[in-house]
User: What shape does this take?
Amino acid sequence: MELLAFGKTGWGDELFYATLMTIAVSITAMLVGFFFALIFTPLKLSKYKTLNLVGNFYTTVIRGVPELLVIYLFFFGGSGAIMYVASIFGYYEYIEINAFITGSMAIGIISGAYSTEVFRGAIQSIDRGQFEAAKVLGINKFVQFYKIILPQMLRLAIPNLSNVWQITLKDTSLISVTGLVEIMRQSYIAAGSTRDPLFFYSFAAVLYLLLTYVSMKLINKLEVRYSRGY
Amino acid sequence: MDFDLMITSFPKLLGATAVTLKLLSASLFFGLLIGLLFAILRLNKKIFINKFAYGYSYIFRGTPLLVQIFIIYFGLGQIEYLRTTFLWVILKEPYWCAIIAFTLNTGAYTSEILRSAFQTIKPGIIEAGKSLGISNKIIFYKIQIPIAIRQSLPAYGNEIILMMKGTSLASTVTLMDLTGVAKYIISTTFKPIEVFIVAGGIYLFMTFIIHNVIKYLEKKYSFQ
Assistant: This one.
């Protein structure tokens, strides 16, 4: 137990902050994912074949390639890509991107592919009449999507989005390979310096279980709230 | 774009794909057995057995695969007693540790898939079997299991693809699988995009094959 003490003697405070970091990365990644999903879902549902292709390419590639490989692409390629863009604008200094941004972008793009699929499924299960009614009322496509389809779709999407959240939360453990100090990285450091990997990795497992358990409870409440009209 | 690098790295990555496939097939094979066992335990009426099986699947589905591999590979070696038993022959090898972690992980997901498949079997089918005087054991092996396997094919196909992606974590315990070799080439050449295209292409090709095999099986064993 003294291994978990707060302060200089134990790893309690370090692990506490690492847990906060995991939560922060997960939420950021989930939001980045929503952003991508809002772009790619309309593409997948578009009536134009080329746009469909772009949408399908995104979800197929990301869901078919290991998360770790995507993270390596961002980790090794991220600053290169930014520096290339900066060089166009005449900036040639070395730019290093922070591990938090790289990590949440990488996980966000992965999470976005899953969210896109969830949104697509939810939109497709909305009654055609809703789209037609909006059209008849002369509501433009943009308002139709954000004011009519999105609110209805969210209710249908919440159970599946909670799965996406669980996947995202667990995927953040992979960012530890880039050196960002979240639960996994902190456990690795603690395990290395105390030579007690069994304890620290098991404790990390408990922390993840706690996070998944608490978030499940919260999402269930949200689900009840969004279904109150039904 | 460095096409030469893409061409020269292709054979290396293809060689590493063999490691990925070995890890995948071994863990799927053992995982299916464990999954079936725990699905049956989940359906057991004794609350203790039932809860035990639920606890197993809850823990392995609620924690990241990376934690599971690290506990098995770095953690278990710490127990002095284990080092004296024959288990140590297995547990000191990263290859077997990865397979054990993958097996337990996919076993947990498979048990959930099979459990829900067992539960969707219509009671009428079992009753029909009983009224024909077929013994409970034969009903289970010859009626329930085949139907459950057919029911769970789509979900199990997804699980195979998820597991294939999961094997990439073997690279974190020093194994040179497809992702391990890709990372090595990236970190020596600093050409992440080229390597990503080749390695990602190989993964996508495998996903494509698995997807189509499952689709074929679904069609072949459909009820119509």
In short: The domain at 2-226 of chain A is CATH 1.10.3720.10 (MetI-like fold). The mean pLDDT of chain A is 89. Residues 118 and 157 of chain A are 6 Å apart (CA to CA).
